[in-house]
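Course exercise 7: structure representation. Students receive a sequence record and must write out the corresponding structure in token form. The form below is the worked example handed out in class, using RteC protein (281 residues). Read each field label carefully; the graders check that inputs and outputs are placed in the correct fields and that the protein name is recorded exactly as given.

STUDENT ID: A-19
EXERCISE PROTEIN: RteC protein
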Amino acid sequence: MTEYLDKIIKDLEEEINEVFYMETDVLVACEKAVEFTLKKISELKNYVLNKGFENQKEEIHFFKHIKPQFIAKLIYYNSVYKIESKKPRETKTIKKYFRGELEKLKQYFDHNLEFYKYYRTNNTFLDEKIFVRGKYNIKLNVYTHYFDSDHSFSTSHDYKVAKIIANDLIQVYLEDQLHNIEQKKVLDNSTLNWTASKTALTELIYALSAQGVFDNGNADIKVIAKTFERTFNIDLGDFYHTFMELKARKINQTKFLDSLRESIMKKIDEQDERYVLISIR
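STUDENT ANSWER:
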């Protein structure tokens, strides 16, 4: 069972990572992540119900450590979808909104403090009561939805573990969003100047445009150029004429791009050498 469980969680993580790498719209990405997760949970349920558990210890381990990983992803991506879809536009309002969402997490934590302590300190004395199917104790703060759930694939507290894992991830997400807002403020108040040649920047702009990295390839080259001019405090002049000169080169038409590749490869090699030296020491 262990090999299968490791594979299914690894496959899910790879699918989700790929969709977030390929998809620029966070709402679409979250929607797909929820869809992928639901499929894996269904697959996991069928596997467990068909195969069963060798003993109670294996059952406890599954509902305490394995199933919650999947449900946590479901909760997390669904929550991020809701957070992003309801997010206001103004910066000040957004900060207040994100802090309000963080406060909800804190309230949940305060309300479930005892179980947080139990789970995070790796206690086991209640495991046979809360992570075995068909058992529950209403005095142990059982979720109401447990009574309406499929008891062949649920215990009284596996969802609570998933909620803890998901809330930790949601907290990191919200704190990252707040940090990004503060960083944007810093960037808006700072200036970067392009100090390489105008020809080099023109080469870069046309390469990015050709790759279609802005607005799914629909951004006008003039808009891209103007954005770079404002961002890096430079006047490119007749950048189209500069591009024509690049095309007219008989050799090395992508001189700057080639130099970028050489620079990053050199940096990677230096980092690798430094890591080796540190490891030897």
